[in-house]
Amino acid sequence: MLPRKSIIPEEFALPALVSRVPRKPVFRDRVNKARFIAKSGACNLAHKNIREQGRFLQDVFTTLVDLKWRFTLVIFTMTFLCSWLLFAMSWWLVAFAHGDLDPHRKIVVEQCVTNVNSFTSAFLFSIEVQVTIGFGGRMITEQCPAAIAFLILQNIIGLIINAVMLGCIFMKTAQSHRRAETLIFSRHAVIAVRNNRLCFMIRVGDLRKSMIINAAVRLQVVRKTTTPEGEVIPIHQIDVQTESAVAGNSIFLLAPLIICHVIDKDSPLYDLSAMELQCSDLEVIVILEGVVETTGITTQARTSYVTEEIQWGHRFVPIVTEEEGVYSVDYSKFGNTVKVATPRCSAHELDEKPSILIQTLQKSELSHQNSLRKRNSMRRNNSMRKGNSMRRNNSALAVPKVQFLTPEGAPNLAVT
């Protein structure tokens, strides 16, 4: 049997109609992935399967500085205790070899160390020698050359231990990232039009009065890319130029500054529109480096912005004002932004069609004028309502006319 033909023509069937409908580009939801740099500046990176652990022992001082405080304090305490116990055993052996610990000896011989008769007294003498306390109850004599050699050795080793441990404690308390705690970044980054160009902007500031010398800001875009050969690069770092790139990215961080990156053809954000940016998995890393004015130590502050933290069509509000001859900074508005007219297309499309920017600015100007007109009309209506209400109140307070009748019955109007 031949298949029955449909009554509806094929060109008007549902599949044909659906195929002819123009489809809009569909953007997949962005898959949440781990940040490479946290907002606090910490690197979200774990080192695993390191086989050559001995490399860390080749630089013991750096290893001690990198340890956490609890491990450093435990090592600090155990080092001194072990050294005191080790030399206490040495002094006890010297006294035992010389016969100072024998209470029944017949020949009276001067002791190597006076009043060292047990291991406890030897331990106390070891502490006195290494810490240079010297209570005076125990002291070395010239009877034992070995005791003199142990005294010199313990002093040298004690000085080395003190230098290493105190240097480690000092470096941990004066680490450069402590100064970076007062270098702040805006919570969000913004993309808006500045000088007729689409720009990516952030705000940085320093809470201390002591300045950061030779401060420099670097921006990097980190994203997962695939080369034409098929090689997958999970962390591809792309340098991003800022407005001060000609001067080596040096900034004068006296007051909070807005760091601006012009999205041009060399920018990794050049082909991204507002919708495509929200669906991408890129991360913008900001690195602020400089020399601390008070200590001369180089410090570095870091942060990052994922696509959810980039506000398209916003601008930072001004926070620096002049009050009584002094420039004042209001840090309560440090991260505040306002909406501004910004095309939703990419910078590439904006360069190909400059009329988009002109139309957007004209629309914003018209909307601004309309809002001003509405505001003025509302003010006029409110003023008219207030005037009418005042007139009504005055009329209510006015004295009414009273009609008097004369004896003849003729009306006489009088106003009191």
What does this protein structure show overall?
The structure is a single chain. The longest helix is centred in the C-terminal third of the chain and has 43 residues, at 355-397. The protein folds into 3 domains: 67-173, Helix Hairpins, CATH 1.10.287; 179-343, Immunoglobulin-like (Sandwich), CATH 2.60.40.1400; 354-416, no CATH class. Helix 4 packs across helix 5 (145-173). Strands 1, 2, 3, 7 and 10 form a 5-stranded mixed beta sheet that branches. Strands 4, 5, 6, 8 and 9 form a 5-stranded antiparallel beta sheet that branches. Strands 11-14 form a two-stranded antiparallel sheet. The protein has 416 residues and is of the alpha+beta class. 19% of the residues are buried. The chain contains 9 helices and 16 strands. The chain is elongated. The protein has helices at 14-20, 60-66, 69-98, 119-131, 145-173, 176-179, 274-279, 347-352, 355-397; strands at residues 183-185, 189-194, 197-206, 212-226, 232-240, 250-251, 257-262, 283-292, 298-306, 310-312, 314-316, 320-323, 326-329, 337-339, 402-405, 411-414. Residues 367-390 are annotated as: Disordered. One of its GO terms (molecular function) is ATP-activated inward rectifier potassium channel activity. Residues 183-353 form the Inward rectifier potassium channel C-terminal domain. This is ATP-sensitive inward rectifier potassium channel 8. Keywords: Ion channel, Ion transport, Membrane, Phosphoprotein, Potassium, Potassium transport, Transmembrane, Transmembrane helix, Transport, Voltage-gated channel.
